[in-house]
C-alpha cells in the first residue's frame, strides 16, 4: 500500500514544477510592449480648441487638417503677390507638431517655377504656421508625442 501511495504521489510532486510562475523583468515587459505598438499611428490627433471634443479619430483628423488649411489659405490670401505668369500648382507642406504643441515646417516640396514667381512663398508659409492658434499635441497612450503631417496646398495666381 505504501508503494502504491508513493507511486501516486510521485507524479503529483514532480508535476508541481509546472505550476511555478516565471518572473518577468520590467525591461522584458517594456520590450514586448514596444514591439507590439504601432508607432506610425497616434491614439489622438493634434487638436485645436474647436476640435478638442471630437472623439472619433477620422473626424478629429479632418477637423485638424481643415483648420490648418483654412488658416494657411487665409494668411496667403492676404498677401498680394505680383506674378508674370499664371500659377496653378500644388506644393506639399510637411508640418511637424512637437510634443509641446509647437508647429514647425519640417520641409516644403515646391516646384522651382513657383519659387521663382513667388520668392517669398516659404516665408509666408512660415508666418502662417507661426500664426496658427494653440495646438494640443497628438498622443500615444496618453503621452504627448511629436507628429508630422503631409499637407497639399494649392497655389493659384494670375
Query: Which percent bin holds the helix content?
Result: 25-40%
Give the biggest beta sheet.
Answer: 3 strands, antiparallel
Structural class: alpha+beta
Lateral strand order in the biggest sheet: 2-1-5
Number of strands: 5
Note down, in words, how this protein is organized.
- The protein has 5 helices and 5 strands; from the N terminus they run αααββααβββ.
- By secondary structure, it is α+β, with helices and mostly antiparallel strands.
- Helix 3 (57-78) packs across helix 5.
- The longest helix has 22 residues, at 57-78.
- The N and C termini lie far apart (105 Å).
- The mean pLDDT is 82.
Topology, element by element:
Layout: H1 2-15, H2 26-36, H3 57-78, E1 87-97, E2 103-109, H4 112-117, H5 121-130, E3 138-140, E4 143-145, E5 147-157
Antiparallel strand pairs: 1-2, 1-5, 3-4
Helix pairs in contact: 3-5
Descriptors:
three-stranded antiparallel β-sheet, TonB C-terminal domain-containing protein, 5 helices, 40% helix, alpha+beta, 158 residues
What is the compact description of this entry?
The chain is α+β, with helices and mostly antiparallel strands and 158 residues long.
Amino acid at each position: 500500500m505504501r508503494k502504491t501511495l508513493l507511486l501516486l504521489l510521485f507524479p503529483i510532486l514532480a508535476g508541481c514544477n509546472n505550476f511555478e510562475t516565471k518572473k518577468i523583468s520590467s525591461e522584458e515587459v517594456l520590450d514586448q510592449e514596444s514591439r507590439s505598438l504601432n508607432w506610425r499611428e497616434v491614439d489622438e490627433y493634434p487638436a485645436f480648441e474647436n476640435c478638442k471634443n471630437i472623439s472619433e479619430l477620422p473626424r478629429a483628423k479632418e477637423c485638424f487638417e481643415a483648420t490648418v488649411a483654412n488658416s494657411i489659405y487665409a494668411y496667403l490670401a492676404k498677401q498680394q503677390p505680383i506674378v508674370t505668369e499664371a500659377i496653378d500648382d500644388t506644393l506639399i507642406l510637411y508640418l511637424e507638431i512637437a510634443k509641446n504643441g509647437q508647429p514647425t515646417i519640417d520641409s516644403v516640396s515646391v516646384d522651382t517655377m513657383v519659387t521663382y514667381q513667388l520668392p517669398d512663398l516659404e516665408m509666408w508659409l512660415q508666418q502662417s504656421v507661426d500664426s496658427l492658434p494653440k495646438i494640443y499635441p497628438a498622443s500615444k497612450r496618453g503621452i504627448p508625442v511629436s507628429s508630422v503631417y503631409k499637407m497639399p496646398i494649392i497655389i493659384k495666381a494670375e
